[in-house]
Amino acid sequence: MSTPAPGPSQELGAFLRAHRDLLKPADVGLTATVRRRTPGLRREEVASLSGVGLAWYTWLEQGRVTASRQVLTSVARALRLDAAGLRHAMRLAGYHEPTADGPEPDGLAATVRPVLDSWPTSPAVLLDRHFDLLAWNTPWSALWGTPESVPADRRNLMWLMVASPRLRTVLHDWEPLAMNIFQHFRAQAGPALADPRTGELYDRLEEDAPELRHWWSCHSVAELTARSVTVQPPGSAPLALSLSSYHPVDDPSALVLLFTPLTDQDRASMAALCDRPLRAVDPAAGERQAG
User: Fold this and answer.
1) Are 199 and 5 in contact (CB under 8 A)?
2) Range list of H helices, 118-173
3) Structural domains in the chain plus CATH codes
4) C-alpha torsion angle, residues 249, 250, 253, 259 (rounded to 10)
5) pLDDT in tens, 243-272
6) Per the database entry, which stretches of residues form a coiled coil (predicted)?
């Protein structure tokens, strides 16, 4: 059974509390006293800086009231939230959400798959708002392993980043990218954080990578930034790829990740890799499903 996930209001409150705890009085121009016991700012300090009442701000952190855009912007400014943090807070409050009448996952996958296949040497994947894999191309399977080998309830980018031995072996310096993916999921998910699928996914992460539970319980958010990564598939020399991401026009809550070879040699290496027999993501995945 999936663990019930908190609703957006509770998530917003937890997010604000986490950032309040991270701030020091000096960060906002206040003087800390020797006897101060609060790790971070006090609620009354945030309320005063935001121009709202203490009781109302307390209720906001408890998920009992709804903030307007203007008030939430003032609170975000008091908490020194960056642009990604403000967008995340707005989404949790019900603002900036994509329309709910987008295409069905199968229809979106059918529309985007030809685009993915147009990149014959660039691994690419289509993700839904939970980061579940909807479609992928041959270079993706050749580099990271075939997603079909992973049970459907674990066919998710966050699970792959932390629980797939193949991905962690192939990707050099995997941790910064993996953490950024978790931060971006939280930043863009909005009400999806309260969906049953999110609770189910966190259950699978807990089962398969309990040592990293602090990652998915963290309230930090960030945009998924473009970067260069180095990968080394089994039996190959290292090659460099440039990561970029795009939102399909038909469904802005979905995401396309594209890894583009940086040089002619990198493209040739990816082409050679695509000619090899495809490998499974994780040989033990089927055993976990059977168990």
Assistant:
1) yes
2) 138-144, 157-163, 165-170
3) 8-92 (1.10.260.40), 105-290 (3.30.450.180)
4) -60
5) 999 988 888 889 999 999 999 999 999 999
6) none
